[in-house]
Amino acid sequence: MAGNTITRSQLSEAVYQEVGLSRNESADLLESVLNKISDTLAAGESVKISSFGSFSVREKGQRVGRNPKTGEEVPILPRKVLVFRPSQVLKSQIADSGSDPIS
Amino acid sequence: MTKSELIAYLADENPHLYQRDVERIVTTIFDEIAAALTRGDRVELRGFGAFSVKQRNARVGRNPRTGESVSVAAKRVPYFKTGKQLREKLNN
């Protein structure tokens, strides 16, 4: 059961099947959704999609890292990372889906 | 931004669409992603990120309040890895 990868084309195909816009327009709308989420996050605002999950931006402070190959110390600059927190609904839906372990 | 604000924005940008249809579009996208993950599939959206499911093995946990051990069953958890472009965009 596991192992398939879904991409933009399957998602926009699903939108096409569901709503009956043209394939092109369905693909454009999917892109608009992803772009709007990205822009909102880049502006520092979090995005909450009810019953799916929320995306938020976390600021990481500077710390000292190490080049694992040379052992040399290098500063890791402060940066922003995206955190996705799945909703309780999504978590429980996935938690007890199927029994084959994922390889 | 909430899901309804996202829908309102898209409806604004696409005045030729019914708000009802925009709602269905947004709902379909997230439902499809959730369904794929529930099947154990991975969803890869280049530039944005990838959703996948990770297996967590059964383990013996502890009730932090009482210190009592409890067994935690194996489960699957959703996981999101930010895409390269989006990661760069967050840091300009």
Write structural notes for this entry:
The complex is a heterodimer of chains A (about 100) and B (about 90). By secondary structure, chain A is of the alpha+beta class. Chain A is built from three helices and six strands. Chain A has helices at about 10-20, 25-40, 90-95; strands spanning about 5, 45-50, 55-60, 65, 75, 80-85. A three-stranded antiparallel β-sheet of chain A has the order 2-3-6. In chain A, strands 4-5 form a two-stranded antiparallel sheet. In chain A, a hairpin with a 6-residue loop joins strand 4 (about 65) and strand 5. In chain A, helix 1 packs across helix 2. Chain A is elongated and about 55 Å long. Chain B is of the alpha+beta class and about 90 residues long. Chain B folds into two domains: about 1-40; about 40-90, HU Protein, Chain A, CATH 4.10.520. Chain B has helices at about 5-15, 20-40, 85-90, and strands at about 40-45, 50-55, 60, 70, 75-80. In chain B, strands 1-2-5 form a three-stranded antiparallel β-sheet. Chain B has a two-stranded antiparallel sheet with strand order 3-4. In chain B, strand 3 (about 60) and strand 4 (about 70) form a beta hairpin. In chain B, helix 1 packs across helix 2 (about 20-40). The longest helix of chain B has 21 residues, at about 20-40. Chain B is elongated, with a radius of gyration of 19 Å. The model of chain B has no long low-confidence stretch (mean pLDDT about 95). Classes of the chains: A alpha+beta (about 100), B alpha+beta (about 90). Chains A and B meet through strand 1, helix 1, helix 2, strand 2 and strand 3 of A and helix 1, helix 2, strand 1, strand 2 and strand 5 of B.
